[in-house]
Amino acid sequence: xxxxxxxxxxxxxxxxxxxxxxxxxxxxxxxxxxxxxxxxxxxxxxxxxxxxxxxxxxxxxxxxxxxxxxxxxxxxxxxxxxxxxxxxxxxxxxxxxxxxxxxxxxxxxxxxxxxxxxxxxxxxxxxxxxxxxxxxxxxxx
Amino acid sequence: xxxxxxxxxxxxxxxxxxxxxxxxxxxxxxxxxxxxxxxxxxxxxxxxxxxxxxxxxxxxxxxxxxxxxxxxxxxxxxxxxxxxxxxxxxxxxxxxxxxxxxxxxxxxxxxxxxxxxxxxxxxxxxxxxxxxxxxxxxxxx
Lengths: 141, 141
Ligand SMILES: Nc1ncnc2c1ncn2[C@@H]1O[C@@H]2COP(=O)(O)O[C@H]3[C@@H](O)[C@H](n4cnc5c(N)ncnc54)O[C@@H]3COP(=O)(O)O[C@H]2[C@H]1O
Ligand SMILES: Nc1ncnc2c1ncn2[C@@H]1O[C@@H]2COP(=O)(O)O[C@H]3[C@@H](O)[C@H](n4cnc5c(N)ncnc54)O[C@@H]3COP(=O)(O)O[C@H]2[C@H]1O
What we know:
The structure is a homodimer of 141-residue chains.
Chain A: H1 2-7, E1 16-17, E2 24-25, H2 30-40, E3 44-48, E4 54-59, H3 60-66, H4 83-86, E5 93-95, H5 100-107, E6 112-116, E7 122-127, H6 128-140
Parallel strand pairs in A: 2-3, 5-6
Antiparallel strand pairs in A: 1-7, 3-4, 6-7
The structure holds the ligand Nc1ncnc2c1ncn2[C@@H]1O[C@@H]2COP(=O)(O)O[C@H]3[C@@H](O)[C@H](n4cnc5c(N)ncnc54)O[C@@H]3COP(=O)(O)O[C@H]2[C@H]1O (2 copies).
């Protein structure tokens, strides 16, 4: 059926490849991470190491939260905090050979999903925008 | 057909009502807006006036961008900048009696949409999450 064919479509054609994904490296300062987020305009990006393994996700909210003092936002601390200490280490993954069915379940609660290959290396991301475009095509088929 | 019925479903049942939408008031400082974003955890929220008219959308990225100096992020300016000067005034709307068909077209490029009633007053928001849940139900029907 058209529905079965759609749900069993592999996600591989829809992944934004690793080289196009804005990210921050582990060990970088929270200030550097904030600059990357501001300049790329993305609200949340992966935190990777030099071997392209995923360590977490970081957002402006997580960074600001880490410097929220009792009286004021303690901006002077940003240069001295590592992104490792603000990031969310709980990352939901898709595997490179997963199907749209699996992706659809996960994008309900995640704006984007990190995709890993068979070695567990970061291969790219799958976004809600890409899934929504495919869903619209499917509906109008 | 099942598809026509789905696309012609009014969005009214799926709107997150205005009283549940985190927002910032026009005239507030950028610092206050940043605290609202950090504490509610949302990456972008509407900017409203006391009559519940929408003036724009604001995010941490827009706020940080407004204080990005040549040498450093100029945090001391935050208390003196109004959210009015950082926000994006270009807001895409849905009307309260629009259908899922219209919403589906717009959520491809917007994580959420502001919904207005017949007086042009802010009625709530429609999110990608809600549309994705309805799309999943439709597929599995
Ligand atoms: N530079 C840009 N050009 C055009 N449209 C833009 C854009 N930046 C944001 N948008 C729009 O806003 C949505 C939410 O972006 P956000 O940065 O909050 O959330 C993004 C961001 O956290 C992440 N993301 C997307 N592309 C990325 C990339 N190339 N590198 C790193 N992270 C990315 O995935 C989330 C969902 O992305 P998605 O495309 O579904 O949804 C995006 C897209 O529809
Ligand atoms: N407190 C929370 N509890 C559970 N899940 C959470 C959450 N905060 C964020 N999420 C998850 O992360 C997605 C992206 O949130 P974000 O804040 O970037 O982007 C949000 C935010 O900018 C706005 N938004 C959603 N609910 C809002 C509310 N009650 N007030 C103000 N803005 C809201 O609409 C965008 C899309 O929301 P959507 O629900 O589709 O998608 C949300 C949701 O799946």
